[in-house]
Amino acid sequence: MALLEVKELRTWFEGEAGTVRAVDGVSFSVGEGEVVGLVGGSGCGKTVTALSVLGLVPQPPGRIQAGSSIRLGDLELVGASPRELRAVRGRRVGMIFQEPMSSLNPVYTVGEQIGESLRLHRGVGRREARRLCVGLLEEVGIPEPERRRRQYPHELSGGMQQRVMIAMALAAEPELLIADEPTTALDVTTQAQILALLARLRESRGMALLLITHDLAVVAETCHRVLVMHRGRIVEADSVEAVFHRPRHPHTRSLLDSLSPLKGETGQGEADLEGGTGDGTPVGSDGSGS
Length: 290
What we know:
Distance between the termini: 9 Å
Helix content: 25-40%
Structural class: alpha/beta
Number of helices: 11
Strand order of the largest sheet: 7-8-9-3-10-11
Shape: globular
Largest sheet: 6 strands, mixed
Number of strands: 11
């Protein structure tokens, strides 16, 4: 059953140079408990797609065009009221943003920031929020959680900051977690730890995961299905095995051809998806995954 279903999503931006079609007719779904990877190079529209789902595209200059549909269960998010969207963000859909240091507020402690999410979405008091915060920090693998709760973001390593972001995203026990480049700027060892943590949390909580990345190695290790994005469109959508071993779109093949260390050694090294070819035309799938 589809938890999230996106159909013909078009998110455009108006500027002095004209209209930028950042997302231009994207369709896909994420099932309950499923892990879907959305991969592509910088500027292909991955993050804008995620922001569109949560209604976080700045308007102006951005605008979700008429005819677009984003359904979370029975709720249509395109055109939803601000109150409805606030009820979805965090509570039903959590998001891990890029660059935790720029996403965490430097003037509040880790505990204050996680506690705010707990009080807002779960309606608990301050004492209960502190207890739950310590439990979340422990769950995401942060040592000495009671002490870390009282620290500020700048006192933590990059890996710990990312774990705090994951704890915040999980605070309201969402049905779907969107992770936007969760391993950016982390060393290889820490990347592996964060990915293993996400996999364990998804399994233990039974939530769905939309993993946005430029790294094909991450997709190979983590996901059930892959969506390849190029120039604002999904050009290929299939299982991990099919995309890696039987790619159909020229853009997908060019990406894999540039990543020869991955062939036969899935999960080895980083796969950077910059460049490649392709005309943006989907091959063999409408991208819905259904």
